[in-house]
């Protein structure tokens, strides 16, 4: 007998209120746990940061099960914020992956209960070769926490799972504590936006941190002429530069003005060929500097309805051109 169509339909929750109540309970428990964790931080956190900072090698992060997933995330966060890190699966460590750990490294091992059997090989290896070991867990008397050089003790709080078994609140605290370590290390190292961009060249965040110096045309690609240059020669400079402009400089190389396609159209008449670049140029053009964000330079060009900015060298008193930025360069890079 074929079941009726009605019986094949998925069950509809009796009330959305129950779903919202569950979600709010989970988030409420997580919020309370993070506040408790924050209040519990002490000198061990500072010692952990110092240990990580002193490592001449990498941070080897490991954990099993859900703790392993958290460990992967922590390793990725460290690596993207200036602290080289690598995840080693504890079960694979005793089957050859221990070779990834060197005496210059530091271990960060995660286990809520601290009795994860798969971590034993890493613990033994660390002790044998005196590799600094940081433990993150909730049981101070556990094997892992007892063996650790630095102990990051997590407060014992209820899991959000109705059965109190599935790692939920506990893993949230681990992730948050890993983030706290990464941020503290960033600040201790003075990690800069430019370094962050170097580690994220393919993402939107990396593109948003592109500087003018990364996109500008420089050297012989900068179209320049003197104020007394005849316009026929200035036109050749514009054409050869392929940037739609030429910068007009004084005898010391300081920027006086700019001649663009628009300037040529405004001054084009029967006497145009007898004019000089100085007579046609726009004085006091909009400029930028090499360390300005490309997104800011793009915003300026859009606001002023222009397509080029000369880049001036701050070391020269912001007078001498060291580059030219075209709006197309910014649009191709996609800053912001």
For the structure shown, list the relevant keywords:
single chain, 336 residues, alpha/beta, Rossmann fold, CBS-domain, 5-stranded parallel β-sheet, 16 helices
Distance from N terminus to C terminus (CA atoms, Å) equals 61 Å
Strand order of the largest sheet: 2-1-3-4-5
CATH top level label of the largest domain = Alpha Beta
Q: How many strand elements?
A: 12
**Helix proportion range:** 40-55%
What is the number of helical segments per DSSP (H or I, 4+ residues)?
Answer: 16
Q: Specify the overall morphology.
A: elongated
Q: CATH superfamily membership of the largest domain, which one?
A: Glucose-6-phosphate isomerase like protein, domain 1
Q: Which architecture name of the largest domain does CATH use? A: 3-Layer(aba) Sandwich
Mean pLDDT: 88
**Share of residues in strands:** 15-25%
Helix and strand run: HHHEHEHEHEHEHHHHEHEEHHEEHEEH
**Category from helices, strands and their pairing:** alpha/beta
User: In the residues, how many domains can be counted?
Assistant: 2
Could you describe the largest sheet, including whether it forms a barrel?
A: 5 strands, parallel
């Amino acid at each position: 007998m074929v079941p009726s169509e009605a019986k094949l339909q998925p069950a509809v929750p009796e009330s959305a209120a129950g779903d919202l109540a569950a979600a709010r309970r989970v988030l409420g428990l997580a919020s309370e746990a993070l506040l408790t964790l924050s209040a519990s931080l002490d000198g061990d956190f500072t010692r952990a940061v110092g240990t990580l900072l002193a490592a001449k090698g990498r941070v080897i992060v490991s954990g099993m099960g859900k703790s392993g997933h958290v460990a992967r995330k922590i390793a990725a966060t460290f690596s993207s914020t200036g602290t080289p890190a690598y995840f080693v699966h504890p079960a694979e460590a005793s089957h050859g992956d221990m070779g990834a750990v060197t005496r210059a490294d530091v271990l960060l091992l995660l286990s809520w209960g601290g009795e994860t059997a798969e971590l034993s090989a890493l613990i033994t290896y660390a002790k044998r070769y005196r590799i600094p070991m940081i433990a993150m867990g909730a049981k101070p008397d556990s094997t892992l926490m007892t063996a650790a050089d630095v102990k990051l003790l997590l407060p014992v709080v209820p899991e959000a799972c109705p059965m109190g078994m599935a790692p939920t609140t506990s893993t949230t605290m681990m992730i948050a504590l890993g983030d706290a370590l990464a941020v503290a290390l960033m600040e201790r190292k003075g990690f800069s936006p430019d370094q962050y961009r170097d580690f994220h060249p393919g993402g939107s965040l990396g593109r948003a941190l592109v500087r003018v110096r990364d996109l500008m045309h420089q050297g012989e690609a900068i179209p320049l002429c003197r104020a007394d240059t005849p316009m026929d020669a200035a036109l050749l400079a514009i054409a050869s530069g392929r940037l739609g402009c030429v910068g007009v400089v004084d005898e010391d190389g300081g920027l006086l003005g700019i001649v663009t396609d628009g300037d040529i159209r405004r001054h084009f008449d029967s006497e145009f060929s007898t004019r000089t670049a100085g007579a046609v140029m726009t004085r006091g053009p909009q400029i930028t500097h090499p360390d300005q964000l490309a997104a800011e330079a793009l915003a300026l060009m859009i606001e002023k309805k222009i397509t080029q900015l000369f880049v001036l060298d701050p070391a020269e008193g912001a007078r001498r051109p060291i580059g030219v930025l075209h709006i197309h360069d910014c649009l191709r890079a996609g800053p912001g």
